[in-house]
Write a structure and sequence with these properties.
disordered N terminus, 13 helices, Maltoporin, Chain A, Beta-barrel_TonB_sf, mainly beta, transport, TonB-dep_rcpt-like, 22-stranded antiparallel barrel, 3 domains, Plug_dom
Length: 982
């Protein structure tokens, strides 16, 4: 049944692609026909597309009423960047995406993609459009910008305003609208090469575009290729250690040489000791390995006591980990347009993208107490067991087999439709109708994990045959079983063993969008009576309907899902929903050409959305624009918004993760040390007074950064989720003084309030809500053992908490008068964050995190870019300064890297803040336009090779490699490019 459904869908896509291809061929044929028989007569220009981001009513006045940032092809080229997300990140109001190329621990189909985040509200709350229409999104609601090569982009519009009343779900933070090239004559080829100062992370790009245009038709074909080399964490001192170069001995993981836990009965003399609370603590031993040489692992004489507080038997996992993943991107693109008549045009677009990416982390920290395969011990009758006759627990990292994940993602997109004009009541109305189909398929292959049933057999009983130690069970030997001396360490395991116990897991994910839209806009009445002799203008209206179906599946590897491997287990995802929507937008120009009212107009929009999973929602938007005189425009909006639950939010199966967290009950670094109420609550919960949290290696945590859980926590979906809701308020001005030609000043205030946030409640938050906020709802999400250690924790999704943020955006742009030495342009764009208040649940106090490093997000008080451009004849140059204000960070300890030990940390709730300084990066570029239509570009980003501060609040999941901020340049970066037009 599933196969038949899949075949039907593929046939449908092939038919749609064929239709688009035929449309493109028709456009191409029309081009030749026009060349042969065109009379050269003029025609109506009413069909020329006018895209207004944030409004469906055509007209530039409506556009200027909203805070929109425009980046044209020249600005994109001048950035020296080749990824859309990196280009967007230059805008000060763009934050760090939820997933970056530095993220090596996040699993799933989104890994390896490129995303954006407007106003630090999360990538899922930024809507990405292409030519005003939704682009493909994943099961998690993320839009991968790597599927859009820079070569096909005409310009990028960034609407920094809520727009759910126009576009529907997800436009809470704003909208990124990527406008592709629709008219192009001739051919163009571009090549690019860039490399970091350390000689790694090279980027190699090439693209080719061909187009033909006539009066009535156009066609564009394009192909692009991009190859980004990976960067290894061990390459730089900044990333060579888990806790950074200042603390190279901290945060090391489980070692590469085998260790055992004394298996003898509690109370046995010499086997361990009793803790003060009466708990038996067995002795741990690690095999001796002087110079990397291991002796007889079956003899306990060759072992020494394992000291969790010593690094002698630890391993630096950064030596095997990618700092930034590598990727290869390929794209084919075609767009065509044919004007059937002066009032009707057909258009179509086809895009196919393929992305390959690779990440690597150190080998798996395998141990009997890891929660994976409780029977995984060294058998009593195993020849390598230092405790013969006992089932012996062990611990050891399999460094010989790093965990490598290959991801391949394919996006097929097609849209085709018609647009035109029609006369209604003596007025011209513009209409369009579009069918939009996207299908994204991703496959992940994870290598380097352990197949636990075979590992159990390889650690099972052995015998000697022909002088060789072999697996005792004949059936297991016939199936390939080879004894595994796991205690021997690196070099002590034959390849035959790795072949037998190794696990390669394959997961697949598919998401599909079917979207049909229809829009119409035009004038309905003039308002002369409100504007004296000159008239107020025409009342314009726009309306439309949309039907969209989202479908998604996720198929984990069967062995992983069954918990038979060391890979994170997850259950399948399968779900879909449909939405039917209708909207209306009304623009009313009230006054014009009057004293203190050169223009006064209001705009009202409403959108009704009916979802199959949760019901309906209506969202409204009200805005005004007022020009008291020609030089000044005042504007403001009030907008309701929403974000619907994604397929993953609703239908994802339960998944595991090994979280890094700080337990408030820890007697050395937890909040219980300074908060008597927390200490009392921990005691009431049965936590011993001297309880110490341990990390994955069994070591007691040594700083306020906490440690990674030695057991997996669980997270899952929730079918009863409701949509997130938001209120956005903006007010601003645009000032273009007539007495200073070429100058523009914009200033906008924004305030966004998001409620019912859909979120995974992370381990640290759950524990803080339970003990710091005394909320029993969260206390039921975890359990502890008699020793106080957490034995299970549930992080499933919920509609919890609120997020409120407000601030200002300031833009200053000035084109100086022409001089004898060329033309100069100065531009400055800045963002000032006034507040960023987050409350994680009803009744829980909010915390203002502005100025903090918040896990994956730097909430800078000020971000600013200053750019100077110069052009003279064929030459050009630019200098850009990118400024980030300082951030507050968690103290490393109370007396190490803690310059404000008595200040309350708004993020953790405890005491201690480390204030880090600001940083500025400088970029330079030189350009030369050759007479043969060639353009040379050479540039250096971060020309002074500045390094940002280290932040111990940076989390490994999402952003990537702590403690370095993923928003900062890691190195000086050189690039060269050449463009040739034909």
């Amino acid at each position: 049944m599933q196969s038949g459904t899949s075949q039907t869908r593929h046939r449908a896509f092939r038919r749609a692609a064929l239709a688009a291809a035929l449309g493109t061929c028709l456009a191409s044929a029309a081009l030749h026909a026009q060349d042969a028989g065109s009379t050269g007569t003029s025609r109506s220009q009413t069909l020329d597309a006018i895209t207004v981001t944030g409004s469906r009513i055509r007209g530039t006045d409506v556009e200027t009423a909203q805070p929109v940032v425009f980046m044209d092809r020249e600005a994109i080229r001048a950035s020296g960047l080749t990824q859309v997300d990196d280009i967007l990140a230059l805008i000060p109001s763009i934050g760090t995406a939820d997933i970056t190329p530095q993220d090596n621990l996040t699993s799933g189909g989104d890994t390896g993609g490129r995303y954006t985040d407007l106003r630090n509200l999360g990538s899922q709350r930024t809507l990405v459009l292409v030519n005003g229409r939704r682009w493909s999104s994943s099961l998690s609601g993320l839009t991968d910008l790597s599927t859009l090569p820079v070569s096909i982009i005409e310009r990028i519009d960034v609407l920094k305003d809520g727009a759910s009343s126009i576009y529907g779900s997800d436009a809470i933070g704003g909208v990124v609208n990527i406008i592709t090239r629709d008219r192009f004559e001739g051919a163009e080829a571009n090549v690019y090469y860039g490399v970091n100062g350390k000689g790694d992370g090279a980027q190699k790009n090439g693209d080719f575009t061909w187009g033909r245009s006539t009066e009535n038709a156009s066609i564009i074909l394009g192909a692009s290729y991009q190859d980004n080399d990976p960067m290894m964490a061990s390459k730089r001192s900044l990333t060579s250690y888990p806790n950074g170069p200042r603390h190279p001995g901290d945060g090391l993981g489980l070692g590469a040489y085998g260790g055992v836990v004394d298996p003898r009965a509690d109370g046995t003399a010499g086997a361990g000791s009793f803790a003060p609370d009466g708990t038996w603590v067995p002795n741990n031993y690690v095999v001796n390995h002087p110079g990397g040489v291991v002796g007889n692992t079956a003899d306990l004489v060759n072992y020494h006591p394992y000291d969790a507080n010593s690094n002698a038997d630890k391993y630096n996992t950064q030596r095997d980990t990618t700092f930034r993943s590598g990727s290869k991107l390929r794209n084919l693109f075609a767009t065509g347009r044919y004007n059937v008549s002066d009032s009707v045009a057909l258009r179509g677009m086809v895009s196919y993208s393929m992305r390959d990416s690779t990440t690597q982390v150190a080998g798996y920290p395998l141990q009997s107490a890891s929660g994976r395969g409780d029977g995984l011990v060294i058998d009593p009758n195993n020849a390598y067991n230092p405790f013969p006759g006992y089932a012996t627990p062990f611990f050891r990292r399999t460094v010989e087999m790093p965990r490598v994940t290959w991801s391949k993602s394919k996006l097929a997109h097609i849209d085709f439709g018609a647009e035109g004009t029609v006369g209604i009541a003596g007025r011209d109305w513009t209409w369009d109708a579009t069918y939009n189909y996207s299908e994204t398929k991703s496959r992940q292959v994870a290598n380097g994990n352990i197949y636990l049933p075979n590992a159990e057999k390889a650690l099972g009983p052995t015998t000697v045959i022909g002088g060789q130690v072999v697996c005792a069970n004949a059936a297991d030997r016939a199936a390939g079983c080879v004894p595994w001396n796991i205690l021997a360490g690196p070099g002590g395991t034959p390849q035959a063993v790795w072949n037998y116990i190794g696990a390669t897991g394959t997961t697949r994910q598919t998401s599909r969008t079917n979207d049909i839209t229809a829009n119409i806009t035009g004038g309905i009445v003039d308002l002369p009576w409100l504007a004296g002799t000159n008239g107020g203008g025409t009342v314009n209206i726009a309306g439309g309907i949309e039907h969209r179906k989202e479908t998604g599946t996720y198929r984990p590897d069967g062995n992983d899902a069954a918990g038979l491997t060391t890979n994170l287990a997850s259950a399948p995802t399968d779900g879909s929903y449909t939405v039917n929507e209708a909207y209306l937008e009304l623009d009313v120009p009230l006054l014009r050409d009057l004293p203190f009212a050169q223009e006064l107009a209001v705009n009202v929009a409403t959108r009704y959305s009916r979802y199959s999973n949760f019901g309906s929602t209506t969202n409204n938007k009200y805005s005004f624009r007022w020009k008291p005189f020609d030089d000044l425009l005042l504007r403001g909006t009030f907008a309701q918004g929403f974000r619907a639950p994604t397929i993953n939010d609703l239908y994802a199966g339960t998944a595991e993760s090994f979280e890094t967290f700080l337990d408030p009950c820890d007697s050395a670094f937890g909040a219980s040390v300074t908060n008597a109420d927390v200490k009392a609550r921990c005691a009431t919960a049965g936590v011993p007074a001297n309880y110490r949290q341990v990390d994955l290696s069994g070591k007691q945590i040594s700083s306020n950064t906490g440690g990674q859980s030695p057991i997996p926590f669980l997270a899952g979906s929730n079918r009863n989720l409701r949509p997130e809701t938001s209120i956005t308020r903006t007010a601003g001005l645009v000032y273009s003084p007539s007495y200073v030609s070429g100058m523009d000043i914009t200033l906008d205030y924004y305030k966004v309030d998001v409620a019912n946030i859909i979120s995974t409640v992370l381990a640290s938050d759950i524990l803080n809500y339970c003990y710091l906020q005394n909320d029993p709802t969260f206390c039921g999400r975890f359990t502890r053992g008699p020793d106080g250690r957490i034995t299970a924790l549930n992080e499933s999704l919920a509609n919890l908490g609120r997020l409120r943020t407000d601030g200002y955006d300031l833009g200053l742009h000035y084109r100086l008068p022409e001089t004898s030495i060329g033309s100069f342009r100065v531009s400055s764009d800045s963002s000032y964050l006034s507040s960023y208040e987050r409350s994680s649940g009803p009744g829980i106090a909010s915390h203002n995190l502005v100025g903090y490093m918040d896990g994956t997000q730097g909430l800078y008080r000020v971000r600013s870019n200053l750019r100077l451009d110069w052009d003279y004849r064929q030459f050009g140059a630019s200098w850009t300064l990118r400024y980030y204000s300082g951030l507050k960070d968690a103290c490393y300890t109370s007396d190490v890297e803690c310059n404000r030990p008595n200040e309350k940390n708004e993020r953790t709730g405890g005491l201690g803040v480390s204030q880090k300084g600001s940083i500025a990066f400088n970029d330079a570029q030189l350009r030369y336009r050759a007479r043969w239509n060639g353009n040379f570009t050479i540039g250096v980003n971060n020309i002074f090779n500045r390094k940002g501060p280290l932040y111990y609040s940076v989390t490994a999941t999402g952003s990537g490699s702590p403690p370095y901020n993923p928003a900062f340049d890691i190195d000086r970066y050189f690039y060269v490019g050449y463009d040739q037009k034909f």
